[in-house]
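Usage

Read records sequentially. Each one opens with the input sequence:
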Amino acid sequence: MDALSTKNLTKKYDGFTLDNINLSLKKGRVLGLVGGNGAGKSTTLNLIMNTIKASSGDVEILGVDNTSSKFTDIKQSIGVVLDNAYFPEVLTIKDINKIMKGIYKFWNEATFFSYINEFGLPLNKKFKDFSKGMKMKLSIAVCLSHNAKLLILDEATGGLDPMAREEIIDIFAKYVNDTDNSIIMSSHIVSDLEKICDDIAFIHKGKLLLNESKEVIYKEYGVIKVLKNDFESIDKNAIINYKINGDSIEVLIFKEKLTNSHYEIITPTLEEVILLMTKEGVK
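and closes with the structure output:
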């Protein structure tokens, strides 16, 4: 059983369509959703949680359809962090702990205050006086303190400085290591996803352009740089996309399909793959 799967998930708005998104997240793995602003990342996560209704398609979380009556119980096993934390402004951390006790069956107060202490958050300060980074850390502490089996994270490292991001990524890595726990997380910071994710899904203008394991991307994707005059000699089956830079062309390729062996093949970073796939090239 997958931790999460979507089948032909679609949401239609005036002027934008999230189109037939098919995702699969195995237990014990981390799936990264990457894409520009307005690409459809947050829409996808909201559809998964059924906070907005899909135009068509299906979602299963921990073996349960997200539109079924059983999904209410499954939410106990899901930790959610949104790009903006939502708690009443007048509450303190102590207040939030009391409220969470009444919401989650498996709320662990000791775990919660351990994270609060680790993050250096003030116990008696009101939520409205927290910085964005403090609010994000509080949301993360909550989602990790009720025995969740799946974390759904929307820009969870946003608003944090580089040292804090590194700290949070390490915590998420420990959460999934040697367990059946899973994470789906969106971020515009591709380097964060590259550090922790096992699988990458790239959404661009509402369409899923890439859905591969990170291992496959590094193994099968490459970049070559050629002069314009040499571009036509490249096997078209090998070309994924390309970018023109003056007299030269940077080409994203499938390594195994490249028949012209004299080219130097560069192994790209994840960010380079994403950037090349968004250019107006072959596909």
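Summary fields computed downstream for this record:
- The first strand starts at residue 4 and ends at 13.
- The chain has two domains: 2-214, 217-278.
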